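Dear H.,

Thanks for agreeing to be a second pair of eyes. The structure we're designing against is below in token form, covering all 134 positions.
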């Protein structure tokens, strides 16, 4: 069987885009489960718990705007993970997700698999946040 280059390209695009759609859907589910309570469903920092915190939860739709129009992917990844962020002044009110996720993921997938799954969850969240920018 001979497959034309165009068909092959289309196939590749479809496979890649379905993977991407899944990644975003996964990130969105994770976001609604873990983040919306503080940051709000739409990411604007207006979740039901927001008024209970000393620091207002960040408006997550403005991360690109605050970075000259580019989504600061690795900075966002590190901020969500939280395990390697040098603590600033005062205490962080945002949970350290790298630790929270890893506790459960390690129990299910072991230390190496658990770390991989935890990182994948943080990637999915970062990718989802990238889609929220205005
Ligand atoms: C308990 C409330 C709470 C929850 C739940 C929470 N956050 Fe936060 N988040 C905050 C607060 C408050 C800040 C502001 C800075 C600080 O206190 O560290 C923040 C800051 C951030 C920042 C940094 C924004 C910036 O401009 O520096 C990112 C990114 C972020 N949160 C993403 C998330 C994601 C993704 C989740 C879910 C996995 C989440 N947050 C869950 C309270 C929360």
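And this is the sequence the design step returned. I haven't edited it by hand at all.
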């Amino acid at each position: 069987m001979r497959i034309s280059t165009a068909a092959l390209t289309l196939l590749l695009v479809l496979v890649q885009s379905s993977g991407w759609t899944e990644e975003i859907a996964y990130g969105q589910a994770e976001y609604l489960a873990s983040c919306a309570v503080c940051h709000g469903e739409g990411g604007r920092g207006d979740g039901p718990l927001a008024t209970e915190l000393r620091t207002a939860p960040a408006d997550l739709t403005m991360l690109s705007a605050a970075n000259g129009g580019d989504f600061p992917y690795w900075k966002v990844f590190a901020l969500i993970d939280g395990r390697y962020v040098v603590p600033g002044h005062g205490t962080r009110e945002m949970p350290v997700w790298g630790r929270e996720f890893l506790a459960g993921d390690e129990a299910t997938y072991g230390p190496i698999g658990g770390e991989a799954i935890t990182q994948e969850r943080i990637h999915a969240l970062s990718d989802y946040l990238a889609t929220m920018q205005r």
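Two observations from my side: Residues 34-35, 37-39, 49, 53, 55, 57-58, 60, 63, 76, 79-80, 92-95, 97, 125 surround heme C (CB under 6 Å). The mean pLDDT is 89.

Warmly,
E.
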